[in-house]
Amino acid sequence: MSGTAQSAARHPDSFGAKLRAAAIGLLFAAVLLIPKMLHLRRNENSWMLFRVFLGIAGAALVVLPLSLWNSYLFAVVGMCLFISAILMPPAKPVNFVDDKARELGALVVVNGGHYQPGNAPSAAAQLFVGEERIWALDDHLQPLVVIPVSEIIAARAQKLDGVWYLRVRWADCIAEFSYRGVFAEHLARTAEATLAGVIRPTLPVIPAKARAARA
Fold it and tell me: Taking the model in full, what pTM does it have?
């Protein structure tokens, strides 16, 4: 009689120990899955399904342990999961620079410092350099200015009042990109060298008298 009672007393304890071990394993797996969760957040539908699943799992941990073996520990964990599912931020789609570069046919992407289009506020820019055009895009990959490569007259980096600038002249237009900070000169000169690699050299104009003399 006493042996049966002791066996019955040990059974809930062994079951609880297994459940705790399983919970620890799940927490460890969750830590390993954090990078994948960050990637999951980029997809709105997948992120919503994950939040729903987390909320259901949290609610289950609150209800089932209390009804089966009166364990408050898992109820607290379940409540935390449920609240986390509610308070989690919405999905955050990411604009991929590589995808945009392929879409535009850009050969290389370099830091464009900051660019101020007209009277609009200054915005961080990236230069997508292609054979035919150079796109200056903001953080949301929206165009700030588009420069035809064939019309570029000059692209020079220079320092003025402690700020490095990359000035690009084409036709009757000038685009000015500003760089600040420790690496300002390096970034400005890198952009200058990149643009110089795609700018076609202007052929010298031979005067009419010289052409007539050669003829």
Answer: 0.54
- Strands lying side by side in the sheet with 108-115: 143-148, 133-137, 123-129, 108-115, 173-179, 163-170, 152-160
Q: Is 149 exposed, middle or buried (0-12, 13-18, 19+ CB in 10 A)?
A: middle
Give 166: exposed, middle or buried? Use CB within 10 Å, 0-12, 13-18, 19+: buried
Helix (H, G, I), strand (E, B) or coil at 37: helix
Q: Where are the domains of the chain?
A: 2-87, 97-196
* CATH number of the domain located at residue range(s) 97-196 in this protein: 2.30.29.30
Q: Dump pLDDT digits (tens) for 20-62.
A: 666 666 565 555 555 555 555 666 666 677 777 777 777 776 7
